[in-house]
Structure formats: structure tokens, C-alpha cells
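Q: A reviewer asked whether we had any structural model of the full assembly, not just the individual parts. We don't, so I'm hoping you can provide one. Inputs are below.
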Amino acid sequence: MTPDASALLRWYDTHRRILPWRSLPGQRPDPYAVWLSEIMLQQTTVKAVIDYYNRFLTHYPTVQGLANAPLEDVLHLWAGLGYYARARNLHACARRASELGGFPETVDALLTLPGIGAYTARAIAAIAFGQPVVPVDGNVERVTARLYAMEDPLPASRSRIAQQAAHLNADAEAQARPSDFAQALFDLGATICTPRAPSCLTCPWRTSCIGQSRGIAASLPVKAPKQARPVRYGAHFVLRDGKGNVLLRQRPPKGLLGGMDECPGTEWRSTRWAEEDALSHAPFLTQWQDRGTVTHVFTHFTLHLTVYEATLPAGHNAGINQSFGTFRPAERAALSGVMKKCLLRADQDVETT
DNA sequence: TATTCGTGGGG
DNA sequence: TCCCCAAGAAT
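A: Here is a predicted structure for the entire assembly that you could use as a starting point for your response.
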């Protein structure tokens, strides 16, 4: 028993969101633009993505342009958006697609490309190529769980929910408009079937929603309890050369903030650093100013960083081991959010925390 | 199956 | 203030 696809599509025709990566009704979107937006939108809000999306399209109007760019430039343009493996995979995927002469049109072929998983493959197939598949993201998961009153907790219930969701497009109306149907599900989840306080009264699917009829829609999907976020500590050193440059090094190519630039600093460990201990990791022996601390919350741990700042006396950079990095203008670097906070902290008065 | 992997905004 | 979460993928 599937809900009324026609009702959802009528609602979508009136209420659909206008977004920069969406083509006008009846027009085929550029697969490159669809792919780019889908990668950026993974675990990221529409509001946060829009500016980045526009900047990428300006710098790289085609997949070939992106494929030919140095990874460093891509990371610089991605800096601040988070989940930097996406940027590395974006670059690798652009090269593959460029070699192939474009993006493949089937789910199975799309799945072989870096950074494209079960959701994104179906999103691209449906939106860019009109394949009748249902991309199951957080929105569709929530809509489905409520529609069928599925009370088993995530993430264990994920595959069962996806199985149900795969049939949402069974109606002929949905089969005829795969791109609109997929995006209608997104918009329904984003504007009506919201995580908290869903607007069931105006929902085009309210009459067939079991969660609504049982009065439990807002409580779905049930989620398993999360575990506590550990705390880590570190110290970083903002060293300027007096010519507008900052000492920066590149993090290892994989893992946390992989490939991004950072000021040299200590390891991030579970115990606090004594000042003397932290200073022993400084790139240069000088009078370091304690600029206070920066707190940054990652998905799986909270980080407290002490920021030290100093300006290099003229003509002393020869004594700095190159493992600490090179002096570069910060504007040209690929700086993560937490490292931007450190540089900002170095410029502030300590008391203004 | 469970972890790792960012960041900013909203309630 | 704190907690939740957002068009998930890779390992």
C-alpha cells in the first residue's frame, strides 16, 4: 500500500523550493551540477551549501575544469564546509567522470565512483537522468518511518526503512516523474515532515500516514541513544613573519581534516597539557603569548586548544625545521573551521573570551 | 555492524 | 546553554 504519489507531486508543483542547483520545471539539469550539489549536501544543510555551491560553479563550470584543478585548490575552496574526505573524493570523482566523458547514468555504475554511495547514486540517477529510483536520505527515512509507523530504532532499522522507501514510487505518476518525485520527498521532509513539530495538518500525505493517525508521527523515527562525546586537548602556535604570512603545515592526506592546512601544534590527547610541555612542541624558541583557548565540537569529540602567538624576528626563519611548515598568506591556505578559530583567537585580546 | 569524519543553526 | 541534526560515505 503506497501513498498517493499524485497528491505529493501536486503539492510539489506549488510548494517546491527554489534552489540554485535545481533546473526549471521541464528542463534537464546538468548532471555535473546535480552531482556537485549532492556531494555538498551530504550531512550538510541547504543554507550552508548555497554559497559554496555557487563558488565552485564559478571556479569550475565543468567537470573537466574541476578534474584539471590541483587538489590544494579544491580543498581551499571547500575549506569550512567540513567532512573534507568529500572534497578529496570530489576531486577523484571529477577525474574519473572526465575520463569517462561524463557521469554514468545507472545506479550501479554511479556506485563505483569515489564519494558516491547508495543515497547519492540514486539521487543522481533520479534527478539528473530520470531513472525511477528512490534516494533514501534522512528526509525520506523520516517520512517513511512515519508513514508506516515503523517504531524500531535507528540505525538498526535503516535497511528495513530503505526497503519500504524503495516502493514509494510504485504509482505510475511517480514513475513518470522520477526527478520531481525524489525532490518532492526531500521538500516534504524539509518543510512539512520535519524532525520536530511536523506540520501534519498541511501534509499532502496526511490521510495515508499511519504515524499521524496513531498520533506518534512526531516521535518517529526512534533513535538509539548516543554515547557521550570525549574531550581532547592540544596547543597550536600562530607564528607570523611580519610580512603577512603565517607558518602553516599540511595535515596527513587522510583521516581527520586530511590534507588541510594547520598551524603547527601538539598532538590532540585526552589529558591537558602543562604549559612547559606544550611549549616544548613550539616551532621556534621565542616569547610565546598565551592567547587563551578555543573550543571546537567535532562529531565524535570536543576539542580544547590553547593558542600561542608570536612574531618572528626578521631573518630568523632559517632556523625553523621544515616539518613545521612554511610561511604563507592565510587567505591562500586550506583552513578548517577549527584552525580559522585559532587564527582569529591569535588576533584577539585574551580578555574578550 | 560500528566508527570515523565538520560545521553551523535552531529549539 | 545544550542538544539535536543536516540531500551519507568509507572503512
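A: Points you may want to mention in the reply: Chain A has two domains: 5-219, 231-347. Residues 37-49, 83, 85-86, 89, 114-120, 123, 135, 137-140, 182-183, 186, 189-190, 195-196, 226 of chain A lie near DNA strand C (CB under 10 Å from a C1').
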